[in-house]
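If you are new to this repository, start here. Below is one unmodified record pulled from the training split, so you can see the exact layout before writing a loader.
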Amino acid sequence: RCVSKPLSPEEAALLISMVKTSKFIIDEQRADLSRQLDGFMSDKKLDEVTETVYVDEREVYAASNVLDAMRAASVAIRNEEQLSFRYRSHWMTGEEKSQQLVSEDPVSLIYSFGYYYLETCVPTEEDPEGSPFFRRLDHMTNAFASGRKIVNSIQVDKLRKHIVSDVSERIDMYGDGRSRTLFLEVEGSRAQYVYDRFGHDLKFEHIR
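And here is the target side for that same chain:
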């Protein structure tokens, strides 16, 4: 009897390469998934698979799970519900603190320069209708679809029409692949947002 395999050797090889180069799962998960996928491949194809890749995980927070946050955000976007989550803030002292549970209107999931973001619509004093905020998924914990409908549906629809331009202006910045040294003047209360964009390649100095 002929049994059809769910994956071809080529598809399995592609998946193994993706698993081995993912920064969002731990070493044990990489090894376990790779072993399971090996069964779909011939010895010849195994020789063509990507070798083990060292993944720099210095910025991975132990309590975060990007894939769980991504699934929760996808459910919230699909059902037009608010996403509830805790978000880690970086202080200028280098200390990290997790915020209280918040709920925000999800706009879109974004991948840019090695990180996954969720754009959300957040009312502010300057913009009561809602401004775009870009939340790093690896800085989120306890994310789940709240079951409550989004508050600013009209503004969310507007933001979804400008995702490309907003990403290029607010995330990519000098997105040409060249390394640059920037000097930025930042209010202390805004330090966490600078950390979100530039990670730990930062050095803070008090100028006043």
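Two things worth knowing about this chain: The longest helix spans residues 66-78. Residues 122 and 131 are 5 Å apart (CA to CA).
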